[in-house]
Amino acid sequence: MPLNNKRLFEMSGLIPYCPLCEHRYTPLEARLLDEKDDVCLMYVSCKKCRISLLALVIDNQIGVSSFCLVTELSMDDVIKFKDSSAISPDEVLELHDALQDNVFVNKLITN
Hints:
By secondary structure, the protein is of the alpha+beta class. The protein is built from four helices and four strands. Helix content is 32%, strand content 28%. The protein is extended and about 50 Å long.
């Protein structure tokens, strides 16, 4: 049975305050972005310093666990990228080569 945001936030073990400025979150500020089987993706943004937490909350036989990441991504960014494919090693190498090209870098800077 899916949990509502407030109950999920309370059970998840998410820290109830911003790890940077210590502003307290309320359960209503947590957003459930995705849910598959027993894993939920949650997002909480600090209204004071604008840093956000992205959390995977896992409900299994031994209880509820969460893994959090401090991020500057907006909720829209997370939604946009959460289902996109991974970057391949070849794409990383292509970007590295492009950054070695002064013409490419100058175009980035001037645009």
